[in-house]
Every structure is written in structure tokens, then in C-alpha cells.
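Q: Here's a chain of 287 amino acids. Please give me its 3D structure as C-alpha cells.
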Amino acid sequence: MTTSSLDDWSPADSPYAIAVSEAQWWLHAVELTVFRMREGEERWTHPFNAEQVDARLLILALRQLLTAEQLEQAALRDLDVDPAVGQALTAARQRFDGSLPGLRHMRNALTHFDAWSRGQGYGPQKDRRDAGEPLRDIARVFSAFGYDPGADTVTLGPYTIHVRVALEAAYDLCEAVCAAAHEVDKKTAADLRVKALQVLTNAGIQPDTVDALLQLLHGFDLRLVLFPDSDGLGDERAKLAQKVINALTSADICLISSVQPGAQDITMRLVGGEWLYVRPGADVGPS
């Protein structure tokens, strides 16, 4: 990828990948907070209890994993991926929700403490207001946030989350987000191979040769390779390589060295038998 393509990059181009990145970051945040909570040592937060600080961060990190799942679902719909992929991700989210009942309300109580501390929050607090319960009583019910090291639980009012369960649920949901993104990669690679096959065939290259050139590995890794020159036809091999590169470049298909991603001598590398990654994009280095 060239400097110009890097400058033109936007996260809006790959929201499904952003979802994976964010899911992994927030999973690590969950891991870190759990580790520190269980460590049970006072740190720079004195005079505040460090475990209680991390308990708050744990709730926020867990809820952010759901945001990553929502972004992944939106990307799956936009990319018209097999609905079964989204359904599998939905099942993972439902497992997560079932393992951590009340998580959304706990997060809301923490982030909207200005309203919840007065009994004026949404969700369960609104339900109680609608039933005529006094604001002071409502606020009291949804208070007393804290981490219990002995029970290894985090509680806010009527809601309790077991830390071990939370950690397992976080792993499961993050893995599901990554698995969904992997299916996007597989679809993208398969679609790109179909396009490249058609482009090269239209360029006059024999179908059998085209099929051998484009290798789809592991279902998601599309590569281009000229097999070893067993017949010693160096000139013909170079002509074929240049023809292939010209055709793909004109169709906005990018070839990247598998050894040196920034290399510009793409034709020489293809002639020499190096695998080249095939990616969408017009930035193919000069031959």
C-alpha cells in the first residue's frame, strides 16, 4: 500500500474490522481490571479503594463489548453477508446478556449518575416513577455500587455480576465478533477471486492458466503466483506476468509482495515465483 492510499484510508471503509479491534481492546480492558481487582493491592488511587475503581471500569468495559457487537452486526448487513453469520453473533450476544443480567442498567447508573442518584433515570427507574414510587425511594433501590472480593461479585442495587462469569462471557462475545469478521474476509476474498478471474480471462489469458494463478488459501487469503519455470520460458513468463499485472491494475485490484509489502518491483517478484497478495485497490507498484 502506498503513502497516498494510507492518507486516503478511513475507518468507514472497514467497520467490520474496527468492531474486531474494539472488541479485542475492551476484552483486554476486562482482563486488566479483573486482574487488578483480584490482586487486592492498594495503588495510586489512595484514599479511594483501587478495587472499587476497577469494578466501575469493568462494568464500562463489558458494556463496550456489546457496542462492538452492534457495529459488527451493522457491517454484516451492509456487506450482505450470509444471515446465518449475524444469527450466530446474535446468539453470542444473547449468551452474554443471559450471563450478565442487569449489565446495561448498571452501566447506565454509572454513566448517568446525575439522573439515577435522584431517581430520574430511564429503564427500571422510570417504571417505578410511572408506578408512583417516590424519587428518594427509587434512588435508594439503585444505589450501593461495590465489589465484594470474598464473593468475587460486583453489585449495584438489585443487580449482581459474578466476575468469573463476566470474564468468560467477555471471551465468548469477543471470539464471536472475530468469527463473524472472519466470514466477511472469506466472502470478500471469494468475491475478489471471481472478479479477478473474469478480468484475466477477458484479457485473453487461458481459463486454466487463470485458475492456477489465483490461489485462495484458508478461504480468506487470495494470492497470485506463477509456478516455477520448469520449461525455461523466461521471456514468455515475463510477458504473462506483465499482462496479468496490467489487467488487474486496470480493474483496481492491488498486488502486494508477501515478503516486502512496500516493494515496487512487483513484476520481477511475480516472475521470480514469489506469492503476491491480491487485494481490492488500485495501488500496484511500478514494475
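Q: Can you summarize the key feature?
A: The beta strands are 146-148, 153-156, 159-162, 214-217, 221-224, 253-257, 276-280.
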